[in-house]
Amino acid sequence: MKLISKNSEREHVEWFSQGINEGKILLVPAETVYCICFDPTRPQILERALQVKNRIDRKFISLICDAKKLNELGIIPNALEQFFIDRFWPGPLAIAFDENTAIRCPVSPWLREALLRVGTPLVAATSANLAGQPPTAEARTLDLEILNRVDDALLDDQLNIYQKPSTLVRLKGRVEVLREGATLVPQKLVNASSKNSISLL
Question: pTM above 0.85?
Answer without folding.
Answer: yes
